[in-house]
């Protein structure tokens, strides 16, 4: 979890080190708070609601197609959240 790394980086910052950056994946509330506090650089926020909506739509398509259904890849893009846009995700 990136927030654990963020704690370690806080110790480095006490030694005036600024060369270590912390990035995470999933955009959880702890990560968003850490970005806002400046202890984490960025996270990839996953739109789980959008993923769920897309999954239900694809499931409906698969049921309607029956044996004609062929697997496809569907992408719900993540969003890079950093200090410039974190307020939008809190």
Tell me what you see in this structure.
- The protein has 90 residues and is an alpha+beta fold.
- It has a single domain (2-89), classed as Rossmann fold.
- Helix content is 44%, strand content 13%.
- The protein contains three helices and three strands, in the order αβαβαβ.
- It has helices at 2-14, 29-37, 48-65; strands at 23-26, 42-45, 79-82.
- It has a three-stranded mixed beta sheet, covered by helices on one side.
- Helix 2 (29-37) links the parallel strand 1 (23-26) and strand 2.
- The radius of gyration is 18 Å and the shape is elongated.
- The model has no long low-confidence stretch (mean pLDDT 87).
How do the helices and strands line up, and which of them pair or pack?
Blueprint: H1 2-14, E1 23-26, H2 29-37, E2 42-45, H3 48-65, E3 79-82
Parallel strand pairs: 1-2
Antiparallel strand pairs: 2-3
Considering DSSP H and I runs of 4 or more, what fraction of the residues is helical? Answer: 40-55%
Total number of helices: 3
Second-tier CATH architecture: 3-Layer(aba) Sandwich
Major sheet details: 3 strands, mixed
The string of secondary-structure elements, in order, is HEHEHE
- The rounded distance between the terminal residues' Cα atoms is 19 Å
Q: CATH first level: which class?
A: Alpha Beta
Shape: elongated
- Rg over CA atoms: 18 Å
Number of strands: 3
Strand order in space, largest sheet: 1-2-3
Low-confidence stretches: none
Structural class: alpha+beta
**Arithmetic mean of pLDDT:** 87
CATH superfamily: Response regulator
Oligomer: single chain
Say what the CATH topology is.
Rossmann fold
């Amino acid at each position: 979890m990136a927030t654990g790394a963020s704690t370690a980086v806080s110790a480095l910052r006490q030694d005036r080190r600024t060369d270590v950056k912390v990035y995470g994946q999933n955009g959880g509330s702890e990560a968003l708070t850490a970005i806002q506090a400046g202890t984490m650089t960025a996270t990839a926020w996953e739109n789980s609601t959008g993923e769920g909506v897309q999954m239900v739509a694809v499931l409906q398509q698969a049921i309607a197609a029956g044996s004609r259904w062929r697997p496809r890849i569907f992408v719900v893009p993540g969003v890079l959240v950093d200090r410039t846009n974190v307020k939008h995700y809190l």
